[in-house]
Amino acid sequence: MIAIFKNTLILLLLTGTTTGRRINERRSEQTEQQNGHPERRMPILTEPIDLGTAGDFAILAKTGISTVPDSKITGDIGVSPIAATAMTGFSLTLVDGLYSTSDQVAGNCYAADYVAPTPTKMTAAVSDMETAYSFAKGTTNSDAARINLSGGLLAGLTLTPGVYTFQTDILISSDVVLDGPENAVFIIQTTGALIQD
User: Fold this and answer.
1) CB 176 within 8 A of CB 153
2) Is 132 helix (H, G, I), strand (E, B) or coil?
3) How many helical (H) and strand (E) elements, i.e. helices and strands, does the chain have?
4) CA–CA distance, 165 with 148 (Å, rounded to integer)
5) pLDDT in tens, the chain (197 residues)
6) Over the range 164-179, which residues count as b (16 or more CB within 10 Å of their CB) and which as e?
7) How many CB atoms within 10 Å of residue 18?
8) How far is CA 42 from the centre of its chain?
9) What radius of gyration do the chain's Cα atoms show?
């Protein structure tokens, strides 16, 4: 199974950057809408979400990253607040205590238990990831066609930029194409699991 991304960077189902001020303006608009001010409409997501320093990572996790060789990951990966032992299957080689390398990663591998300044870098990246996640989680989907699309069976579909919401598990058993312009934004929200078969 191969995920195909056309002209798009996907990180934690989020991509791109905007200013923190714009995020706060959107949050303010959403809060006013939720607090009963109907004259304010929910914003339409047209700008990339600010990932901050989390955007420096191809994969960033708080609970671990596992692989069954051979993976081909382009970009840095990292875990925090947990230790490097939570990155399994990579055969890591520690470099100066700051980061590790792996034949499966075209980039560096970082963990919170490496020497300074790595722990500070990882704490900031995870904080930025959580901020971006909270914003994306709060983004409203008002397009009925993107709610429970295909019952969560996404195999063979081409998705265009926007918000997709599922109250079911999402199953990806073959190629899914995310097709959009550079810096396109795809937010996939689910109360279920994401299953890659």
Assistant:
1) no
2) helix
3) 2, 15
4) 6
5) 333 333 333 333 333 222 233 333 333 444 444 444 433 333 445 577 889 999 999 999 999 999 888 888 999 999 999 999 999 999 999 999 999 999 999 999 999 999 999 999 999 999 999 999 998 888 888 899 999 999 999 999 999 999 999 999 999 888 899 898 887 888 999 888 888 77
6) bbbeeebbbeeebbbe
7) 18
8) 22
9) 18
Region of 13 on the Ramachandran plot (φ > 0 left; ψ -120 to 50 alpha; else beta): left
Q: What is the pTM of this model?
A: 0.70
Supply 43's token pair. Answer: 């914003």
Q: Token pair of 47, please?
A: 């700008």
Parallel/antiparallel/unpaired status of strands 162-166 and 186-190: parallel
